[in-house]
């Protein structure tokens, strides 16, 4: 009799016999078959056998094609050596099972879930003929997908479960094919004919291949599934989606890493289908071949007509016994002895129900912090951030080999302060070590929590300056706050033109400086209080513009020293008030130009000393009013030039004392009006020289006294007229002229005719009076006056 169960492998010789096997298959599960093998007369190197390919075949003869299971040997065990033969136990798994042996931590960016699955399958050794993606839905590219401390299989499984993708295996003639799908339309029928329901007792083989039992279990469902999340790029957007079920109660899932309400609805629908796929489960048992997960079968001849329908196999357990004893079955597989050569236990759902795998694969959590460095697309002295201030980060656990900013998505950085317009952010440059946490522990949601120092990027505060508090940027801008007792200070520095602000301990307790331009601006008042001395050093030009009123109050003496030219221009009226004495000293030339009216009001003594030349030019009218006495002292020459009319009005006495010579030159007329008496006293000779006619009129008494000689020369006529003449002489007088000669023998002359020569004559008396009552004056026989 030919064997029903056979096993072929490069690790075992062809004479190897299958005594029994037990296996389990399920959708989204890597099947496992434990095969008991009997080998007579030969030994097998169990270590070398691991990894070899193998095929378990259930041969149905000519009635049907063989029912095969391909795979590799995950383990080989020598159970017992009975001398005549050896008993081995080999575990057959699909090639894809090898991905469970891996363990990786890596980041995928800007890829879709199918892209990740296919990349890992190829990396795991599966060729193009070893898998197939039979996907109906479209899958967008994701910014950041992280595999963290998990096998490639678990990583693929949890991503697929979240997206509603599941897998099963096709068994070809030579090898298994892994199929990923997301739609019930991908499931085909495998059994060549419908599966018969025949409730016969165990061991009854009269019905042939059939299901002897077919149970139905219905489970309660929730009434609704909600998926909610938060999108920081659209904070006001309500990210929420829901899907209805036929039961009671809500299931609310938050933090599913969805960005839009549409995504929320999609994921809620997948979760609802996950629950609905387990609402009704059918379980059948019997010697029925050709049932496989992912395939559809028809059930017939069930007394409940509704059960005679299409079903999708989601799980199946196989048990085959070709020659094993009951003890071997119990020892090898932990099952009770059975007379059945083959027994299948199948779990199925209605084909009309869309299957979704349960989310059983653990989603890894990162509960602590991980480290990395800020990345960027290029070497740059500046932070490489996006419009939201986010960073690319090379996380150290990432095994990927992408470079220049391609190893992560944009990652936010938590800040100590923020708000609608307020905030704080010190940008990090490429290569800066950072620590990250993950929202909800989800590896796909990293956030930078801070920067960390290392040997290449040391701390700005170390043991050498442990009393300082420092903020320093990459361009060496810094703020230093010294806490050392007795030396506390704050220093702010920008290397551009060595600009700095120093507060506290130091040569100056307040020092603001720069090597270039400076500017102080206040939109309102500016108050500067200096409680002691103030020194300003300006090496260039000073320009001060005051749009409003300007007031300066100095309560102590003021000294202003200008070592060069001083120009002051005032566009409007100027009032200078000195409430006390003014001492103004100018050691060099002074020019004052007043293009309009100038009023100078001095209410107290005013002393002006000019130790050198003083020039004053007034192009307009100049009026000086002195409400008190005025004294001008000139120690050198004093020259007054008036190119126009000059009027001097003195309402009181005028006294002029001239210590040296006095010259008065008048190029035009000179008029002197004296409303009172005039006294002229000379200590030396007095000369009055007239180049033209001279008229003098005295209304009143005219007195002239001469102590000494008085000589008057007249080239023409000199005529003195009086209403009466009285001459009194203390001694004899003789008047002589080239024309006349008058001799007085007595002290009095009355009404005597006086003849003057042609050259004229002058009568001088000393101690004499001349009285003219009636007189006649003739010159050359001509009567001039009588």
Counting helices, strands and paired strands, the structural category is mainly beta
Low-confidence stretches: 722-775
CATH topology tier name of the domain at 5-95: Pnp Oxidase, Chain A
CATH-derived architecture of the domain at 5-95: Roll
CA-atom Rg in angstroms: 65 Å
Helix content: under 10%
State mean pLDDT (0 to 100 scale). Answer: 84
Report on the biggest sheet: 13 strands, mixed
Distance between the termini: 203 Å
As a percent range, the share of strand residues is 25-35%
Number of separate strands:
38
Global morphology: rod-shaped
Protein name: Type VI secretion system tip protein VgrG
Domain Gp5/Type VI secretion system Vgr protein OB-fold: 389-452
Family: Belongs to the VgrG protein family.
Topology overview:
Blueprint: E1 5-9, E2 17-26, E3 32-40, H1 46-49, E4 53-58, E5 67-81, E6 85-93, E7 104-108, H2 113-123, E8 131-134, E9 145-150, H3 152-163, E10 166-171, E11 176-181, E12 188-189, E13 195-196, E14 213-218, E15 224-229, E16 239-244, E17 250-254, H4 261-276, E18 280-286, E19 295-300, E20 310-321, H5 326-333, E21 342-350, E22 370-375, E23 391-395, E24 410-413, E25 433-438, E26 446-451, E27 468-472, E28 478-482, E29 489-494, E30 499-504, E31 510-513, E32 582-586, E33 606-610, E34 733-736, E35 741-744, E36 754-756, E37 777-779, E38 782-785
Parallel strand pairs: 8-11, 12-19, 13-19, 15-17, 24-26, 32-33, 36-37
Antiparallel strand pairs: 1-4, 2-3, 2-20, 3-6, 4-5, 5-6, 7-9, 10-11, 14-18, 15-16, 18-21, 19-20, 20-21, 22-23, 22-25, 23-24, 25-26, 27-28, 28-29, 29-30, 30-31, 34-35, 37-38
Helix pairs in contact: 2-3
């Amino acid at each position: 009799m030919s064997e029903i169960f056979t096993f072929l492998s490069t690790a075992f010789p062809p004479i190897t016999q299958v005594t029994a096997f037990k296996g389990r298959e399920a959708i989204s599960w890597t099947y496992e078959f434990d095969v008991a093998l009997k080998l007579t007369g030969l030994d097998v190197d169990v270590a070398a056998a691991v990894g070899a390919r193998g095929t378990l075949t259930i041969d149905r003869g000519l009635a049907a094609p063989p029912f095969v299971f391909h795979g590799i040997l995950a383990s080989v065990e020598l159970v017992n050596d009975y001398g005549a033969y050896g008993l081995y136990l080999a575990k057959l798994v699909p090639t894809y099972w090898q991905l469970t042996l891996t363990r990786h931590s890596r980041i995928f960016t800007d890829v879709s879930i199918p892209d990740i699955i296919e990349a890992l399958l190829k990396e795991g050794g599966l060729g193009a003929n070893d898998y197939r993606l039979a996907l109906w839905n479209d899958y967008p590219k994701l910014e950041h997908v992280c595999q963290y401390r998990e096998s490639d299989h678990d990583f693929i499984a949890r991503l697929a479960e979240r997206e509603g993708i599941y897998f099963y295996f096709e068994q070809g003639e030579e090898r298994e094919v892994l199929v990923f799908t997301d739609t019930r339309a991908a499931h085909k029928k495998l059994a060549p004919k419908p599966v018969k329901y025949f409730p016969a007792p165990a061991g009854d083989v009269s019905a042939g291949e059939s299901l002897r039992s077919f149970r139905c279990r219905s489970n309660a469902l929730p009434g609704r599934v909600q998926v909610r999340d938060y999108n920081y790029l659209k904070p006001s957007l309500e990210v929420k989606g829901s899907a209805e079920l036929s039961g009671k109660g809500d299931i609310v899932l938050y933090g599913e890493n969805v960005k839009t309400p549409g995504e929320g609805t999609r994921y809620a629908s997948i979760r609802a289908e996950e629950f609905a796929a387990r609402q009704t489960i059918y379980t059948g048992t019997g010697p029925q071949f050709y049932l496989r997960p992912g395939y559809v079968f028809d059930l017939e001849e069930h007394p409940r007509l509704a059960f005679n329908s299409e079903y999708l196999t989601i799980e199946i357990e196989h048990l085959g016994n070709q020659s094993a004893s009951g003890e071997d079955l119990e020892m090898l597989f932990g099952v009770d002895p059975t007379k059945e050569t083959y027994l299948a236990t199948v779990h199925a759902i209605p084909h009309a129900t869309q299957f979704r795998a349960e989310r059983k694969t653990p989603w890894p959590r990162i509960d602590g912090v991980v480290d990395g460095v800020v990345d960027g697309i290029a070497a740059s002295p500046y932070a490489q951030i996006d419009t939201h201030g986010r960073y690319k980060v090379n996380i150290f656990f990432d095994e990927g080999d992408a470079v220049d900013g391609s190893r992560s998505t944009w990652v936010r950085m938590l800040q100590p302060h923020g708000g609608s317009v307020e905030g704080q952010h010190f940008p990090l440059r490429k290569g800066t070590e950072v620590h990250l946490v993950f929202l909800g522990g989800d590896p796909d949601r990293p956030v930078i929590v801070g920067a960390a120092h290392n040997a290449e990027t040391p701390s700005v505060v170390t043991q050498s300056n442990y009393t300082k508090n420092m903020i320093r940027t990459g361009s060496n801008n810094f703020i230093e706050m010294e806490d050392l007792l007795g030396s506390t200070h704050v220093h702010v520095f920008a290397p551009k033109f060595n600009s700095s602000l120093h507060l506290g301990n130091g040569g100056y307790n307040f020092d603001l400086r720069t090597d270039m331009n400076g500017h102080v601006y206040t939109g309102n008042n500016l108050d500067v209080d200096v409680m002691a001395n103030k020194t300003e050093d300006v090496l260039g030009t000073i320009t001060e513009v005051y749009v409003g009123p300007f007031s300066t109050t100095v309560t102590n003496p003021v000294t202003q020293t200008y070592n060069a030219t001083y120009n002051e221009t005032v566009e409007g009226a100027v009032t200078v008030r000195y409430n006390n004495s003014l001492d103004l000293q100018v050691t060099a030339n002074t020019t004052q130009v007043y293009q309009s009216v100038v009023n100078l009001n001095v209410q107290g003594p005013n002393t002006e000393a000019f130790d050198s030349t003083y020039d004053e030019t007034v192009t307009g009218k100049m009026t000086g009013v002195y409400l008190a006495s005025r004294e001008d002292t000139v120690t050198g020459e004093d020259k007054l030039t008036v190119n126009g009319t000059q009027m001097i009005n003195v309402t009181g006495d005028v006294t002029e004392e001239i210590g040296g010579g006095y010259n008065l030159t008048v190029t035009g007329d000179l008029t002197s009006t004296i409303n009172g008496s005039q006294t002229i006293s000379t200590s030396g000779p007095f000369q009055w020289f007239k180049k033209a006619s001279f008229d003098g009129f005295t209304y009143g008494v005219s007195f002239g006294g001469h102590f000494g000689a008085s000589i008057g020369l007249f080239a023409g006529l000199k005529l003195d007229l009086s209403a009466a003449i009285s001459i009194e002489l203390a001694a004899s007088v003789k008047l002589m002229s080239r024309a006349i000669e008058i001799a007085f023998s007595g002290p009095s002359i009355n009404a005597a005719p006086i003849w003057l020569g042609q050259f004229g004559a002058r009568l001088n008396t000393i101690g004499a009076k001349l009285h003219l009552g009636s007189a006649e004056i003739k010159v050359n026989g001509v009567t001039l006056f009588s």
